[in-house]
Write a structure and sequence with these properties.
This protein has about 190 residues and is an all-alpha fold. About 75% of the residues lie in helices and about 0% in strands.
Amino acid sequence: FEQTMVNAATKFPGVIRKGTAAFKELEDAALKAGATTEFTATQAAQALDFLAMAGFGPQAAISALPGVVDLATVSALGLGRATDIASDALGAYGLMTDDVDKLAINLSRVNDVLATTATSSNTTVTQLFEAMKKAAPLATLAGSNIETVSALIGTMADAGTKSEKAGTAATNKFLNLAAPASNAVSNTPPTLP
């Protein structure tokens, strides 16, 4: 636990070392999660480490920890993996921000979308994220949001198209929407290599 906390602390912005007030706050958050959830304090420290790597500040990471604990519980994933998926999804959809309050809102939104889609369609959070990784850049560029892409991927999963195949199919849908009208008329939609 102590080593994981030290590793996490070094990744946050600023100087956070054992014995500082910021370190104590992070440590207390991990210990609380370990005492009040099905995860251990060490697993909570690993989640803080992933949040630090994703660019969260210490206060934002402390605020985010309960939400990623909930996502991990719903998705039956390890806490570190759930945190990694949620923070990567934030980045994929351009939802990272330096505003701690807005970041907490955005992460809650991502957690809710991932959990809702995984529990209401024939996919897992891991499969959903594999699809999102492929589809998110073009979908975001096209002005789509995480909710729309997630619903599309969930619908495809219900029909048996999952994970990277669903991501490629979703990406092609967004390419088709952006294609010139001549491609639509000639029935030659652009595709990814």
